[in-house]
Fold:
Amino acid sequence: MNWINKVTPPGLKTIMQKKDTPDDLWVKCPVSGELIYKNDLEATWNVTPAGAHLRISPRIRFRLLFDDERWEPIALPAVVMDPLKFKDDKPYPARLKAAKAKVANRDLKETEEGGAPLLQEDCMVAAYGKVGGVPAVVLVQDFDFMGGSLGMAAGEAFITAAQLALARKSAFVVCTASGGARMQEGTLSLMQMPRTTLAINDLAEAKLPYVVVLTDPTSGGVSASYAMLGDVHIAEPGAMIAFSGPRVIEQTIRESLPKGFQRSEFLREKGQVDIVCDRRKLKATLSRVLSHLLPLSRRREDRSSVNLTAPKTHAEKPPQPRGVAD
Structure:
């Protein structure tokens, strides 16, 4: 027995007992290295005091963009699982199962006080609501689900959401976050690039706005297709937007890349991005863009019933952004 146990009073032993504490109370800022209390980040939409835009879940993205945090979930079609019977160190279905469990656990934490789960089946989540009074279908790509990789499920989700925007004559907003095409689906994943492009063409023919919000990271086949085909491209600060990574490019051309290469600000200077917008101002910026692109005469909702729901957890008042002037 340790000698300190002999001289420590029983009451003090109880006080000194080690208590279990959550391991996610603090978040380290990737820019400044500062430790930030996680609850403080909720009020700034996961933007650190140094300006780093941390990744957020689809639910938080919906809360950020939709008026009164109310939206109608959009059911997305199921696709054939593991069409190529792909297997590396573990079967593809096992990877999908693990990814679903990961996002389900995250969603459970976000709805622990009530509210409907997202029922996310792949990397895409879609909803319908109003952004600054403008009806819009919003499709969010979730990097936490296998790096937001583009596969058949993501392609079907994109087309389904685009078709709903056509049916309701609303705007279509896509928030991208992806490492590229999903290798477990081979050529089938690459075929989603032209399929999504055709859906965008349908929106253009109907004169409906298609706006892309580029978040960190947006790369690979996603950046080579629907991510760069918007009427307007809005990027979050510091987001990496590229086809291949800087290391691959440097090794290929054997030259050092300029500072800030493949980041939002660099692409805005080169004309590939229209607006670089702080997340805390994103809804106001997107509202202005949509109000110009979708004339008032065309802002009519579908005749069918629309059930816009708000999570009970945040039903009273959305968190107010801090640190950004109106």
In short: Confidence is low (pLDDT under 50) at residues 301-305, 312-326. The chain has two domains: 19-54, 55-314. The beta strands are 26-28, 35-37, 72-73, 124-131, 134-141, 171-178, 210-218, 232-235, 275-276. The chain is about 35% helix and 15% strand.
